[in-house]
Amino acid sequence: MSVEMKDEYDVVVIGGGPSGAMAAKSAALGGASVLLIEKRQEIGTPVRCAEGVGKKDMDRFLDIGPHLISQNIRGATIFAPDGTALKLQANEGEIAGFVLERKVFDRAMVESAAKAGADVFTKATATGLIMEKDTVVGVKISRLGVDKEIRCKIVIGADGVESKVGRWAGLCSALKLRDIESGVQFMMTDIDIDPENIEFFMGNQYAPGGYVWIFPKGKDRANVGIGLLGNKVKDGGRPIDYLNEFVKKRFPDGKIAEINYGGIPVSGGLEKMYGKGIMLVGDAAQCTDPITGGGIKSGLWSGEFAGKVAADAVKSGDWSEKSLSKYQRDWEKLYGKYMRVNLVLKDYYVDMTDEEANKLAHELAKHDFTGVMEVPDLVKIISKVDKKLLLKLGAAYVGF
């Protein structure tokens, strides 16, 4: 690790969120020399996330100790437009997931990348890519008023949903309005909640084409947010207007301690996440779950895959586009079918009327949801109740 930015690295990672940190760590562990840059002066802020994540596989990426966790989660309640409640619950004695302290978690991820050997610099902004013969061969960086060019073999873009890196490299990263959610979130305190239970509110009165969420961060504090699809934000119905209305009714005496805004890609992922000398990870590659909007775990997996492929490419001396295509194959093998199924489920839900949603909820309420805390398990139950969904899922559903 260096206290000064070198002129050349094997791999440069742009963006210090969990996906970028994981990519840097994975590449460094594979023997590559790695530079990780973050444009903000502090890792982990602002928090553009509800901070929830399932327990499964998380220990693979980091030791998830109590210092990283705000709250253990054992259940979730989904409210239909008419108030019908579907109660999902982990098996007795089990923890389904966590609400993280993202500011602490993100810093821990970057520290793990540094410990693996990556050089980390904050307040370092990528201003462009160095291109030769349509191939990315470096990054232009501005840091503390000084411009610098860094040569490298591979660039990994982890710069979020608004990814400039992808556009600079010629990878199609534009999102249709139907495939991006506009999100607003309050961190609230002095509110009455079940601290071990997440809540979701569906319906046009709450969030047309989206949902409102409550993710507990303790006995009287929670992330309370909303996500609306871009094509539903119209006629003056801004996400913050809907969220304010919800909060007034649900938590009239609650206090807002923090507010965050952000875009959430729900496209199911880029068709091509790599190019000549370039790979995109996390939100930059649109690796977010289309139905939940969650992207922490999928982003970590994308970062691990990209970092390993980058390190192997450097080691072999072949970092051609063909060599980097293994990254997409690894991603598709693990997440491809999951994303396709959830994209169908998202479109199915978005096109559903409140009346249809209520009818479905009434049927689903007859089922026992104990042990059902993962989306695939929920999808299987829904598809048994609504055969139209099963037909829409078609081949994508087989083996899900």
Automatic annotation (TrEMBL):
Gene Ontology terms for molecular function: flavin adenine dinucleotide binding; geranylgeranyl reductase activity; glycosyltransferase activity; oxidoreductase activity, acting on the CH-CH group of donors, iron-sulfur protein as acceptor; oxidoreductase activity, acting on the CH-CH group of donors, NAD or NADP as acceptor
Reported cofactor(s): FAD
Keywords: FAD, Flavoprotein, Glycosyltransferase, Lipid biosynthesis, Lipid metabolism, Oxidoreductase, Phospholipid biosynthesis, Phospholipid metabolism, Transferase
Any Pfam family the entry gives: GGR_cat
InterPro entries hit by this protein: DGGGPL_reductase, FAD/NAD-bd_sf, Geranylgeranyl_Rdtase_fam, Geranylgeranyl_reductase, GGR_cat
All copies of domain Digeranylgeranylglycerophospholipid reductase catalytic, residue ranges: 179-262
GO biological process, one term: membrane lipid biosynthetic process
Reactions catalysed: a 2,3-bis-O-phytanyl-sn-glycerol 1-phospholipid + 8 oxidized 2[4Fe-4S]-[ferredoxin] = a 2,3-bis-O-(geranylgeranyl)-sn-glycerol 1-phospholipid + 8 reduced 2[4Fe-4S]-[ferredoxin] + 16 H(+); 2,3-bis-O-(phytanyl)-sn-glycerol 1-phosphate + 8 oxidized 2[4Fe-4S]-[ferredoxin] = 2,3-bis-O-(geranylgeranyl)-sn-glycerol 1-phosphate + 8 reduced 2[4Fe-4S]-[ferredoxin] + 16 H(+); a 2,3-bis-O-phytanyl-sn-glycerol 1-phospholipid + 8 A = a 2,3-bis-O-(geranylgeranyl)-sn-glycerol 1-phospholipid + 8 AH2; CDP-2,3-bis-O-(geranylgeranyl)-sn-glycerol + 8 AH2 = CDP-2,3-bis-O-(phytanyl)-sn-glycerol + 8 A
Record-listed E.C. numbers: 1.3.7.11
A Gene Ontology term for the protein's cellular component: membrane
Cofactor comment: Binds 1 FAD per subunit.
Residues involved in FAD binding: E38, C49, A50, G52, R102, A126, D283, G295, I296
Protein's pathway: Membrane lipid metabolism; glycerophospholipid metabolism
Family stated for the protein in its record: Belongs to the geranylgeranyl reductase family. DGGGPL reductase subfamily.
Job description of the protein: Is involved in the reduction of 2,3-digeranylgeranylglycerophospholipids (unsaturated archaeols) into 2,3-diphytanylglycerophospholipids (saturated archaeols) in the biosynthesis of archaeal membrane lipids. Catalyzes the formation of archaetidic acid (2,3-di-O-phytanyl-sn-glyceryl phosphate) from 2,3-di-O-geranylgeranylglyceryl phosphate (DGGGP) via the hydrogenation of each double bond of the isoprenoid chains.
Note: Reduction reaction proceeds via syn addition of hydrogen for double bonds.
Protein name: Digeranylgeranylglycerophospholipid reductase
